[in-house]
């Protein structure tokens, strides 16, 4: 059964709200993650964007969101990035996504949690 992105995000938010109630030492965790989920949800509208004949990966748009909206970023508050840092960040995000996807597929294949040696 395949779920829509909206369904998955709603489920994630519900779990975060429950986790926040169980961990009173981090009362803003859900609020912080909800901020990022909302902005990252927004980049999905760019799926399928092409430059010439090449489709721009979603990780590129996610990199822009992190670089431009994170207060600790040297690009915070800017409207664009001129040094191509977003390409490096997008590459790291794509690599992390691939690694996570491999672990998830392993869990699904074995029908259980990630093996401790993974």
Architecture overview:
The protein is mostly helical and 118 residues long. It is built from 4 helices and 2 strands, in the order H-H-E-E-H-H. The protein has helices at residues 5-22, 29-43, 58-69, 85-110, and strands spanning 50-51, 54-55. The protein has a two-stranded antiparallel sheet with strand order 1-2. Strand 1 and strand 2 form a beta hairpin. The longest helix is centred in the C-terminal third of the chain and has 26 residues, at 85-110. The radius of gyration is 17 Å and the shape is globular. It starts with a helix and ends in an 8-residue tail after the last helix. The model has no long low-confidence stretch (mean pLDDT 83).
Key terms:
two-stranded antiparallel sheet, 2 domains, 4 helices, 2 strands, mainly alpha
Lateral arrangement of strands in the main beta sheet: 1-2
Radius of gyration: 17 Å
Mean pLDDT: 83
Order of helices and strands: HHEEHH
Task: Give the amount of beta strand, in percent.
Answer: under 5%
Q: What count of domains describes the coordinates?
A: 2
- Unreliable residue runs: none
Q: Based on DSSP secondary structure assignment, what is the total number of beta strands?
A: 2
Distance linking N and C termini: 26 Å
Shape: globular
Structural class: mainly alpha
| Tally of DSSP helical segments | 4
Chain-wise SSE layout:
Elements: H1 5-22, H2 29-43, E1 50-51, E2 54-55, H3 58-69, H4 85-110
Antiparallel strand pairs: 1-2
Helix pairs in contact: 1-2, 2-3, 3-4
């Amino acid at each position: 059964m395949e779920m829509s992105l909206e369904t998955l995000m709603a489920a994630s938010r519900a779990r975060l709200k429950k986790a926040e109630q169980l961990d009173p030492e981090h009362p803003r965790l859900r609020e912080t993650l909800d901020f990022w989920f909302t902005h990252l949800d927004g980049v999905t509208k760019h799926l399928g964007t092409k430059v010439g004949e090449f489709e721009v990966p979603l990780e590129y748009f996610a990199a822009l969101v992190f670089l431009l909206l994170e207060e600790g970023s040297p690009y915070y508050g800017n409207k664009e990035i001129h040094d191509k840092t977003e390409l490096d960040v997008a590459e790291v995000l794509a690599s992390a996504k691939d690694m996570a996807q491999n672990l998830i597929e392993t869990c699904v294949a074995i029908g259980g949690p990630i093996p401790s040696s993974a």
